[in-house]
User: What shape does this take?
Amino acid sequence: MSRPIQIVEVGPRDGLQNEKAILDPAVRAELVLRLEAAGARRIEAVSFVHPKLVPQMAGAEEVMTALPPAKGRSRIGLVLNGKGYDRALGTAVDEVNVSLSVTDGFGLKNQGLATRDQIAMLEAIVAGRANSAGGDTPVPSLSATLSCVWGCPFDGEVSVDQVTTVVRELARLGVREIGLADTIGVGDPWSVTQKIEAARAAAPGATLRLHFHDTRNTGVANAYAAVQAGVDVLDASVGGIGGCPFAPGATGNVATEDLVYMLERAGYATGYDLDALIATARWIGERIGRPTPSALSRAGGWPR
Assistant: This one.
């Protein structure tokens, strides 16, 4: 099985945003560079959110300034609204990932916007991006990620219809890559397959990217289900660190090294150096003051 699977590294953003430790921009930039040296080609490097809300993400501009240009690498900036998007345009990000929620409850807590208002916000960003195209400054590529696809900490269960309604709107706006996120880690492999099939039918021309949290020990199993369903792009966080500060009880992402081990062991190609990933997981664990929760950072790879 030589089929390539792209793993988008989200540790510097989703990984660090829920940690108690607040790392300097220089340390976060070093994490990005270590992950790129380990094979990351797309990496969520920063988040353009208000530092009072997420102090761990303060200094996004400084992080981007500290990163030298890297051919063949895409540095991604997450934004929650138009102000964040404007900030991102003032930096060297290669891609902007707009976060939206399929539920009103989480959208209001995370962004102060109900789902319909988040879609209107994205529509304004898309329109502004179209107006900027063709100018002297390159416009970063655009993707979107939908939070709480498998469950919401405020609204409870999320139906297939809720997901497909929002996915259909993103397809209407021309979003070419749509992330489906299990923000609080409540999904199971069977519901993963079901919602992938529904999202693919709602946006047949879009690439689907899957984002899993391992809150209830189903992250790797859900990633397996996604690959079996034909998904070729997965998010993961080095060391399995992370979570959402606006979602009570949402713990770490599926670990990059655990996912790479499973896929490479089965013969899939990820482009990552597993030993370098494990070393980076242990390094960031020292910086945040606790061992990272990933299995591979404890047990190591195999064969040795």
Remarks:
- Residues 115-132 form the longest helix (18 residues).
- The beta strands are 6-9, 42-47, 74-79, 95-101, 141-147, 177-182, 207-212, 233-236.
- The first strand starts at residue 6 and ends at 9.
- DSSP finds twelve helices and eight strands in the chain.
